[in-house]
Amino acid sequence: MSHLVHRNLNVDPPIAVFGQGIWLREASGHEVIDGSGGAAVACLGHGNPHVLDAMRAQLEKLTYAHTALFSCESAEKLADKLVGHKPGGLSHAYFVSSGSEGMEAAIKMARQYFVEIGQPQRQHYIARKQSYHGNTLGALSAGGNAMRRKPYAPILSPAFSHVSACYAYRDRADHESDADYVQRLADELEAEFQRLGPQNVIAFCAETVVGATLGCVAALPGYFPAMRAVCDRHGALLILDEVMSGMGRCGTMHSWEQEGIVPDIQVIAKGLGGGYQPIGGILAQEKVIAAIRDGSGGFMHGHTYQAHPMACAAALAVQEVIEKENLLGNVQAMGALLEQRLTERLGNHRHIGDIRGRGLFWAIELVQDRGSKAVFDPKLKMNERVRKEAYARGLGCYPMGGTIDGLQGDHVILAPPYTVTAAEVDMIAERFGDAVEAALA
Ligand code: PMP
To answer: Which CATH number is 64's domain given?
Structure first.
């Protein structure tokens, strides 16, 4: 057995030795399409020459400088690229090494903002039940993923409470209109503000499109404006976690662009660096930064590797490729094709409850029965069965859900790179369809 602590301590995973474009090869020689980009990370696929050149160039120039003493060119340029044009008023970037660290930074920055403006009584956050924000303690406290929280429940922060996410497939009542369902969720959030005392709430935290926990679930139209209105009424901030769904994954650079609202603080990672380096971050509104600048003068946070020169150089190159090659257009076009192919192949399958997503972020929900939407017994691990069958057929995909709290079906995520071609989409849908039929025969 391996000396590494793997996710499954009973089975050593295959060793990946080479990646090129959409393909990954393991030591045995078996090749798989990286159909989910890991966990929606590899947005350019593997071995992109422009990114590799930029990383080599950075390696020759500067590998590290501590941010207590210096800034560096790649971090400055990356911030300019992301917020130089102030998208939605977001004017500042802060870079860390992962999505969880980004979430921690967002949580703390929101709290410091209220301390600076003289509202230190604000000590609570409202997040959502079906959500995942990371595995560090603050991010895990924000998350509502029951399975991941369970062993750590006694050491999670009591500063977080949870309301329902917008999950129309299961939670909208029969005969309830979209508008009525959204109003019900807004009322639930309002009631939670009232329970906590509206003047005590720091922020409402949500994934713009729910990733791992529910599987690519976008909110209904009007949901985010309604949530934003509740926050605004009570002077609380809106923190959007776009670690998985942002940076182009859903067809626009930021997922909130499709919702008609802008967050006060946004968390990014995955598609920011495309897996070429570990990098995450937050984007913040000028008002948040100004309060800290005019108050104590600095964000009371920090990590040794924040705004790391190599990580920022890689992320900058990834963003340049996305822009120069107009990859958001390809995400939209290939996303539509992927939806079409999956629907043709599996739309009527008796164990496929829902095929949903945006851009190149798609989930297939597996159910025991389409009509009643009854979930499979989580012990059957149907999503894992699909993953295994797909892997045997040369397709990597990402199994989630089901086992989380039994409130939703298992699902499997497909999230190919933004560079994917029509022929590759066909191959992904074909292999995935074969895998589903084999696993759920
Ligand atoms: N937020 C969301 C929405 C995520 O999907 C993830 C990772 N799956 C995280 C936060 C945590 O990111 P990381 O694993 O890089 O810490």
So the answer is: 3.40.640.10
For the record, the structure tokens of 30 come out as: 């078996």
Shared-domain flag, residues 283 and 332: no
CATH number of the structural domain spanning residue 389: 3.90.1150.10
> How many CA atoms are closer than 13 Å to the CA of 314, on its beta-carbon side?
29
Both 29 and 176 in one domain: the answer is no
Q: What's the distance, CA 432 to chain centroid?
A: 22
**Residue 170 covered by a domain:** yes
Ligand 1 contact, 400 CB (< 6 A): no
What's phi and psi for 197, nearest 5 deg? Answer: 90, 110
Tell me which of 243, 249, 272, 282 to substitute to probe ligand 1's pocket, judged by most ligand atoms within 8 Å of the beta carbon: 243
Helix (H, G, I), strand (E, B), or coil: what is residue 76? helix
Query: Which residue from 36, 104, 132 has its CB within 8 A of the most atoms of ligand 1, so it is best to mutate?
Result: 132
Per the structure, the complete domain to which residue 397 belongs is given by 16-34+326-439
Q: Please check whether residue 362 is in contact with residue 415, taking contact to mean a CB–CB distance below 8 angstroms.
A: yes
- What gap in Å lies between CA 376 and CA 372, rounded to an integer? 12
Please tell me the residue having the least CA distance from ligand 1 atom 5.
Answer: 244
Q: Do 129 and 258 have their domain in common?
A: yes
Q: Are residues 86 and 225 in the same domain?
A: yes
Query: Does 208 contact ligand 1 (Cβ within 6 A)?
Result: no
Q: Give the global pTM.
A: 0.98
pLDDT value at residue 403: 53
CA angle 21, 27, 31 (to 5 degrees): 40
CA-nearest of 149, 147, 133 to 208 is: 133
Report mean pLDDT in 10-residue bins for the chain, 441 residues.
90 95 97 97 98 98 96 98 97 98 98 98 97 97 92 97 96 96 98 98 98 95 98 98 98 98 98 98 98 98 97 98 98 98 96 97 95 89 95 96 67 98 98 97 82
Rounded to the nearest angstrom, the distance between the alpha carbon of 267 and the centre of ligand 1 is 9
Taking the centre of ligand 1 as the mean of its atom positions, its distance from the CA of residue 40, in whole angstroms, is 10
Protein residue whose Cα sits closest to atom 7 of ligand 1: 134
Residue 396 three-state SS: strand
Do 314 and 331 have their domain in common?
no
Residues 6+ apart with CB under 8 A from 270: 39, 40, 41, 43, 99, 243, 244, 246, 247, 249, 280
